[in-house]
Amino acid sequence: SIDTMIPLKSRTLWNKHQVKKFENPDQFEDRFISHVETNLGRSLYNCDDLAAYEATSMALRDNLTIDWNKTQQRITARDHKRVYYLSLEFLMGRALDNALINLPSHKGDNSGTPSRDTVQQSLDDLGFKLEDVLQQEPDAALGNGGLGRLAACFVDSMATENIPAWGYGLHYQYGIFAQKIINGYQVETPEYWLMNGNPWEIERNEIQVPVTFYGYVDRSNNPTSSTLSPAEWIGGERVLAIPYDFPIPGFKTTTVNNLRLWQARPTTEFDFAKFNSGDYKNSVAQQQRAESLTACLYPNDNFVQGKELRLKQQYFWCAASLHDIVRRFKKTNRPWTEFPDQVAIQLNDTHPTLAIVELQRILVDLEKLDWHDAFNIVQNTFSYTNHTVMQEALEKWPISLFGRLLPRHLEIIYDINWFFLQEVEKKFPKDVDLLKRISLIEENGDRQIRMAFLAIVGSHKVNGVAELHSELIKTTIFKDFVKFYGPSKFTNVTNGITPRRWLKQANPKLAALISEYIQDPNDDYLLDTSKLTKLTQFADNKEFQDKWNKVKLENKLKLADLIQKCYDGQDIINREHIGETLFDIQVKRIHEYKRQQMNIFGVIYRYLAMKELFKQGLTKEQVAKKFPPKVSIFGGKSAPGYYMAKLIIKLINSVADVVNNDPQIGYLLKVAFIPDYNVSKAEIIIPASDLNEQISTAGTEASGTSNMKFVMNGGLIIGTVDGANVEITREIGEDNIFLFGNLSENVEELRYNHQYHQKPIPKELEMTLRSLESGMFSPENPNEFKPLWDAIEHHGDYYLVSDDFESYLATQELVDQVYHNEQSEWIKKSILGVANIGFFSSDRCIQEYADTIWNVEALKPE
Ligand code: F58
């Protein structure tokens, strides 16, 4: 036991002064005031909302830290296997409300146990509004989009499911940029999210992990000079990795896991050469460079750039994390062969693939294990999640760049490849083409390391993130690996989302209505989401439908407020008609494959068709029959260097300008672009949707997760047969989703046809593109949007907008008809969606990972 190492006298004293959690409102108030007056150095007289946010957060963090300590001690005492989730991105959003929801009794049950309600009451008594206090918190936006938010949902679920798990990532000073829209264009501004400090993190200066770059490999002590035997890497540059720890609470459990984010710091090492030459300024500059290593998140979504600093970030993070993991394992005094019984490491995409190589280096060079024994351990430890089949998002590193930064790691990769190719050759003799295709090194032109291939070879399991996607990777990008390893190395874990944040926190009114009707006053359905199916019995119930509708209306009003704020007070949405106005929403990163361009083309077509009817002399009422009131809402960031995506943003804003200011159209059609889409805005936007757009070209969106969030909030999907839409349809029933468009199995042929035959463009699209060309939306520069019509008409229409446009419009027409003429049917679909979305809880994902990939069991608090 760890206890016996501490003298009895000290133990007794520590026990006597055991720190206690606040366990009732009075104790919370005590903590709150104490934090205000000591940690913040403020008082009753100058405590503003920000200070109230900080003090509330510190009080909650105290509680979490106490449980955090217990959780960690329990895992260590039991010698339990730990899961490490390595992700370069954690898109956490805000922490305070989440912590409040996870309080032991989250509803006022009069027992005095603290809950969100009692904290709200206390704050009220102290003179603060919880709503305003929550607004003080900046989003922790350390991610780009789906991949980063998935990691955040997963750490939430791992804690809730009592899986002993740590997340490892980087402590960026600047997360994703803040997006401003100026004259319709995206402008990126840096967001220093730590401006006011961060009450949720614990900086651990007592842990400093040195990380090395560059230099050379020294083999002078190694007579065989084989790369397979231990070598010494003499590094050229050295920085320190300092951890920042974030407590991750679970729901209805006292398990608190850890999210550890590393930050780079200069070493205090003293450069004599520079000192002696009197070059003090330069040695300071060099130290400052160290800190810039983790300064900023790369803002690309589904695209890789291949920059040296990015590779440095990756190695820095992998080396620091593995050092930590290995140190923890070594304390158990177990033999190395047991490492995979104690440690499971999940690679969130290929960004942490270097961890595979680093562990092999540690085992061979530092721990002197036999090369093959070491690699066995490595393979049994790691598993890899793929999130894309798109070529431009698959990581490859030029050998020259890589070898300069990490000379010893390059040798190890060559050796891994050498043994791997020998096995391939043994199984498929003389298939030179196969060897070329499957090699970890791409040999055409500039030689590059294929990181996905390295991740496959170094792992025991590879998974895709939705059924369709997991099948696609087996038949396309990883086909040869299926041939070599057999299909069992490849598996599927369909993505999920945490219902705590995406239902309870984002949509408290809907959550309350649900718990009332399914008679679940303790919100157990947030743990066992299959309980949501009890809603089915109320799908036709008039009274329930009315209440359901009322919640939606309130959420739409809240979104209308947000939009008004974004448009400097200009009220775009007509509140009088809001109940009959369909909110059609597409929020996600802007990317051609996600096809926001098709959405806005649909809006333009609708506008042109409406104008035509007016021209024919129809009245507003008559036009409304054909085109009932609708708001098209967009949100999302473009990568700063992605020209086409930025042009799509500009087009949306230009169309909004014209349409919103057309008095003839009025409230019948409005367009809004919400700037700076992020997690906390998503929590307002998603609950307000009637319809949401999941319209990627079939086969391109690996899973999508906002599709799940929208349905969980009573939104209906208009979507293609892509990603998780397929399984959502299976779960909620095809009557409750609007599917359209070509199937993924036809995409290749359609693209081929575009290349070799001039296919006529459907007339509705033709009309739309010509309106762009006429300068209708860019009178000063009619050619502004030329690249958008050229992409379709002259560059092969890679994303198949022209192939799907007609069925998209037809399906939108069907949507209008159901929404306006069969209101009760619409609400029924909405209810049935929520009733059957339970499968997409990220708790289910974590159970699948735990059972089929990590081989780890829950460790419940006693
Ligand atoms: C996303 N990938 C997928 N990548 O596009 C989406 O379908 C899926 O639901 C989600 O992962 C979760 O599995 C994604 O977000 C990135 O943003 C990477 C960031 C770093 C560079 C490469 C793309």
From TrEMBL:
GO terms for cellular component: cytoplasm. It catalyses: [(1->4)-alpha-D-glucosyl](n) + phosphate = [(1->4)-alpha-D-glucosyl](n-1) + alpha-D-glucose 1-phosphate. GO terms for molecular function: glycogen phosphorylase activity; pyridoxal phosphate binding. Keywords: Carbohydrate metabolism, Glycosyltransferase, Pyridoxal phosphate, Transferase. Its EC number is 2.4.1.1. Signal peptide: none annotated. The keyword ATP-binding does not apply. One of its GO terms (biological process) is glycogen catabolic process. It is an enzyme of class 2 (transferase). Its cofactor is pyridoxal 5'-phosphate. The modification N6-(pyridoxal phosphate)lysine is found at residue 709. Belongs to the glycogen phosphorylase family. Allosteric enzyme that catalyzes the rate-limiting step in glycogen catabolism, the phosphorolytic cleavage of glycogen to produce glucose-1-phosphate, and plays a central role in maintaining cellular and organismal glucose homeostasis. This is Alpha-1,4 glucan phosphorylase. It comes from Henningerozyma blattae (strain ATCC 34711 / CBS 6284 / DSM 70876 / NBRC 10599 / NRRL Y-10934 / UCD 77-7) (Yeast).
